[in-house]
Amino acid sequence: MKPVRAKKKLGQHFLTDLTIAQKIADTLLFDQYEKVLEIGPGMGVLTQFLVPKTKNLHLIEIDRESVNYLQNTYSEIEVKLIEGDFLKIDLKTLFGTDSFAIIGNFPYNISTQIVFKTLENRGQIPFFAGMFQKEVAERICEPPGSKKYGILSVLVQIFYDTTYLFTVPPDVFKPPPKVDSAVMQMVRKEDYSLDCDEALLFKIVKLSFQQRRKTLRNSLKTLNLSDMLREDTIFDLRPEKLSGDDFIQLTKRIGHGNISN
Description:
alpha/beta; Helicase, Ruva Protein, domain 3; Rossmann fold
């Protein structure tokens, strides 16, 4: 397949370097899944390298011009094309209970929302890889203890092992973005179950980092913690010092009757 003319749609910068597209496609492991969903294929620069890898390739694209191009390029035998918004689509309707991987050169303006939707559907998504703004990719993969470590880092790393793969310069896109990009991947952990209240965990993590320069004692004061729990030394720490497991243990303690009325 010949390289195609790249266009910028809906905040997306389209990749023109075929070597990088091949490297993204080569991240696919095909472990615990057969189906692959590419989000925002645009004019198919990445798609052409995915087609030979699986007989179960699904594409979801919101831009009508790109959809027309993909329909004319790929038959229904090669791919299943869905015109729509990934953030609004019901993945259960699309895949039933089957597992699938997600891959793509993601529109930067919705990339974190794509990750959060992946977390919501983690039971079906053992593998995730793609292109992000470099800052977002770093944040997802960052270990505890740094300024880049935050809400996204904690919640993703509770369920997935993350790897920052490589940095991508602006000049391989059309039009070039004003920032560097990066490719990262997430491989679901063998045990991704939670033994704490998920809604409370997400709330605690988000509250903690909303005031990340404060100690947990101050950032979580709206939870009305019991006096006994509030005196624990863990509340002397700032949130970036806690790992995902630390947040899970904290959630369990807070959830076990340690909130005052």
